[in-house]
Amino acid sequence: xxxxxxxxxxxxxxxxxxxxxxxxxxxxxxxxxxxxxxxxxxxxxxxxxxxxxxxxxxxxxxxxxxxxxxxxxxxxxxxxxxxxxxxxxxxxxxxxxxxxxxxxxxxxxxxxxxxxxxxxxxxxxxxxxxxxxxxxxxxxxxxxxxxxxxxxxxxxxxxxxxxxxxxxxxxxxxxxxxxxxxxxxxxxxxxxxxxxxxxxxxxxxxxxxxxxxxxx
Amino acid sequence: xxxxxxxxxxxxxxxxxxxxxxxxxxxxxxxxxxxxxxxxxxxxxxxxxxxxxxxxxxxxxxxxxxxxxxxxxxxxxxxxxxxxxxxxxxxxxxxxxxxxxxxxxxxxxxxxxxxxxxxxxxxxxxxxxxxxxxxxxxxxxxxxxxxxxxxxxxxxxxxxxxxxxxxxxxxxxxxxxxxxxxxxxxxxxxxxxxxxxxxxxxxxxxxxxxxxxxxx
Lengths: 216, 216
Prior knowledge:
Two copies of one chain form a homodimer.
Chain A: H1 12-21, E1 24-31, E2 34-41, E3 43-45, E4 53-59, E5 73-85, H2 93-96, E6 102-117, H3 120-134, H4 149-157, E7 159-174, H5 181-193, H6 200-209
Antiparallel strand pairs in A: 1-2, 1-5, 3-4, 4-7, 5-6, 6-7
């Protein structure tokens, strides 16, 4: 990824938070010479660095797990908040008009080696951890034990646990941090008043704070 | 992409609308044997089928355009609305408890051949069309002619126009259309009341309508 120094996000806690809040990753693989992607909710275990892991599961009918190989490096793409930035929002536009539009976004690419497990206990743990993460905001969180054991066993039969062992991470935060302060804050204000995307409020907060994942 | 028949979205007008509303694509390429992705706002010209084109631009400093080759097939991933679906929202849970969580999403993969242009007129047209699309919702849309011509010329110098000639398209709408009606509508209601993601309101509308991109 083209990632100029001023857009690089090296704070791994901030990068991890993006994955936590936007967990649907696009797992990109090369299958018989063709690019493929499967969209899978992932949970980060450990640090987002070599040694850390992204865990998830796929349908047993999804051939992607059969291609898991110790040799090939896969990539998981996480897109966080993104929004169009209009030049109209820059106060400097009123003065010199030397402004053009841009598109802000925060994205993470996690590279790693894919491994799989058919072990029922491993699959149950993956499902249990993912569910706990997803239900964390609920007043009465659903848990795997809420379903009949025989039913869960049958469901586990139909999935395969996957794990991406992290080899490297790329993170790009294109959040107007390269603009002068008045234009940067103008962009945040513009997004807050004329949302250009569903994640515009998140992006507005990121622009203001110059970091974070921008929970509104 | 693993895409069971009941999740396939074959209505190209609906698929095109997703790209229009979620235009930030992840352009995936293979560079020196490694998977790479660059995030680029795209505009669809023509039909989303062989012969159609996705147009955009990248910084001249971004090496991705140097790898444009007539031979390699690239992929652009567009992620639309997505949201976690809690089993708590299914009325059938109260009866038999045989339910598990899932994650809904609508995604499009556009495959094609990448070509580029350094021609100033072509670059100006790309920038002009993209800007018109992005500013369409504004009361006083900014246009390229609002900036000094010499400044725009300088900006155009720094970019390269890119074009993806579409070869094939994959679209997966995982929007609870495989659930019985009461559970499907329960999921929509659950998302509307306990948003599990920024695009949850969009997903709720898609679930209700069984199609579309779900503008709330």
